Amino acid sequence: MSDDIILNPVLEAAKRGYTEQIKEALEQKQGKITDLDPQKNTPLHWAAGGGHYEAVEFLISLGSDVNQANASGDTPLHRSAWKGHAKVSELLVQKGAGPSRLAKNRDGKMPIDLAKATEVKRAVAPPPQETPEDEAFDQEEEDSD
C-alpha cells in the first residue's frame, strides 16, 4: 500500500491509527467503514497493516469485515502478518479472521507465508488438520476404553 494515496478522512485516520478521528469522520459522514481505496483496501486493511490495535478493535466493533480481500487478494490478516504485527494478527483471528488464515492472495500466499517473526507466525498459523489416520486412531482409543 502506497503512502502517497489521497484517501477520504475515514481511510486516512485508519491508516494513521487515529481512532478518535475515525469516530469523528464517521459521525460527520465523511466516509464509511466499507469505503475502499483504489486498491480495494478498507479502513480495516489500513489499520491492520499499520499495527494500530485500538483502531482495528474499533473498526471490528462497528462491523468491519475481517475476511474481506483487496484487489491483490490480501485480507487484513495478510496485511498485519506481512508488517509483523502479532497482537493485531491475534486480535483479527479472535474476532473471526480464522478463514483468512487459509486464504491465499493473488500470489498464492497465505498470511503465514508473509509472516517473518515467530510470534506472528504463531498468531496466523492455520489450525492443524486432522488426518483420516488420526480419526481412525481416535476411534480405536474410544473402542478400547
UniProtKB/TrEMBL annotation:
Show the coiled coil region(s): none
The upper taxonomy is:
Eukaryota, Amoebozoa, Evosea, Variosea, Cavosteliida
Q: Which PROSITE patterns match?
A: ANK_REP_REGION, ANK_REPEAT
Could you list this entry's UniProt keywords, alphabetically sorted. ANK repeat, Repeat
> What SMART domains does this protein's entry cite?
ANK
Chain segments carrying region Disordered = 117-145
GO MF terms listed in the record are:
ubiquitin-protein transferase activity
- Full protein name: Osteoclast-stimulating factor 1-like
